[in-house]
Design goal:
about 375 residues; TIM Barrel; DNA polymerase, domain 1; 2 domains; globular; three-stranded mixed beta sheet; alpha/beta; single chain
């Protein structure tokens, strides 16, 4: 099999590792570029192109949802480290990619396969003097020594948790231990990272819906691990059935659920929301018809309206339509000028169509007559 065919095959296998939420970009290779090139977001929000590829799609695990599970009859292929390092460097020099996203199936021992991935990155960094972005996947069950070496090479490390806890994981990946194989290497990475290492942080990914978990379970696990090991973010990949797997007849997860999970996770990561601030139904699911911030505001009418000219940052961030950037602008401007009109907030970047039912400006309330959003209070 030539390099082009292997790139297409191993790039197709890598598409299940998310590099950008599907609400922002498609999870398929770019049609106008060689196979395996995907759109991603840089840490500062720029759209970039990554070579996203598996070193090998052979795997000893038989995860129920996975396209490369060991019992599935599919073509198998691998790159040698020197081959993939050279291809990555050539594609970068040609201006086709800005970095590498490297994962792999596990052939035999996890550390042996991780060593081949690390060798690929070492060749790039040292032989090819590669200074571009590298996202390196840690394989389940790798050793502390492998994590230490990976820390010195990659800009970002990640390890897919796949499910929010041991019981859920055992339903779809019976061969993996949640704590030993998945969480422990992430803890090692957090503890061992030296200042200046891992500039793009640690991330993880969940397969949403494959194990029958609730949204609350997913957000609770993300919230806990973000506090404990400083996750830069979590990715949510909505389950899609794959032929010739035990879950091939299961219902796919709608994109709306994935989108709400990203919104809820962002509230806990960037807005200071706690798990109990979010609104879940009796089954632990986020509302599909209302974004989590609006749902939280409507569920806590007693906290509103707030006076924009006196509210602190945390209070401003609870208002629908006011985000971290607009909140900072409000805090800066109101020290010099009193905010007295909705257009003032618009200039500062706030969404006043969403915020107006939850604020006062100089004591004046500007509600819009929308029963679904109108607070029950009178001023």
């Amino acid at each position: 099999m030539d390099n082009g065919a292997r790139l297409r095959l191993l790039g197709e296998g890598a598409r299940f590792d998310v590099s950008v939420p599907s609400t922002l970009a498609a999870q398929t290779a770019l049609a106008d570029r060689p196979g395996s090139i995907y759109e991603a977001l840089s840490p500062d929000g720029r759209r970039v192109r990554l070579l996203k590829v598996l070193l090998s799609n052979a795997c000893r695990y038989d995860c129920a949802y996975c396209a490369t599970r060991c019992s599935r009859d599919i073509p198998r292929a691998s790159f040698r480290p020197e081959e993939l390092a050279r291809l990555t460097d050539e594609l970068t020099r040609a201006g086709l990619i800005s970095g590498l996203f490297l994962s792999s199936g596990i052939v035999g021992d996890a550390d042996n396969q991780m060593a081949r991935m690390i060798e690929t990155v070492e060749l790039l960094r040292h032989k090819h003097q590669y200074r571009n972005y590298i996202h390196l996947k840690l394989l389940p069950g790798v050793s502390e020594a492998a994590v230490t070496t990976a820390l010195g090479l990659a800009d970002r490390l990640s390890l897919n948790l796949e499910a929010p806890g041991p019981e859920r994981l055992s339903a779809i990946c019976p061969g993996k231990s949640f704590e030993r194989d998945l969480v422990r290497p992430l803890r090692w990475a957090r503890r061992l990272a030296a200042p200046g290492q891992l500039r793009s942080g640690l991330t993880t990914q969940f397969v949403v819906g494959a194990a029958g978990e609730s949204d609350r379970e997913l957000i609770a696990t993300t919230w806990r691990l973000s506090a404990e090991i400083g996750l830069a973010r979590a990715y949510f990949s909505g389950f899609q059935p794959v032929p010739d797997t035990p879950l091939e007849n299961a219902e796919p997860i709608p994109a709306g659920r994935e989108h709400r999970l990203y919104q809820a996770e962002f509230l806990t990561r960037a807005y200071g929301f706690a798990l109990d601030d979010l609104v879940f139904d009796e089954q632990g699911m986020l509302p599909i018809d209302l974004d989590p911030k609006m749902a939280a505001a409507l569920a806590h009418e007693e906290d509103f309206p707030i006076e924009v000219n006196t509210a602190d940052r945390s209070q401003l961030l609870r208002v629908p339509g006011i985000g971290p950037t607009s909140a900072e602008r409000i805090l800066q401007v109101r020290g010099k000028h009193k905010l007295t009109a909705l257009r003032h907030l618009q200039i500062l970047g706030a969404r006043t169509d969403r915020a107006r039912n939850f604020i006062t400006l100089g004591g004046r309330y500007y509600p819009r007559e929308e029963p679904a959003l109108q607070l029950s209070m009178g001023l």
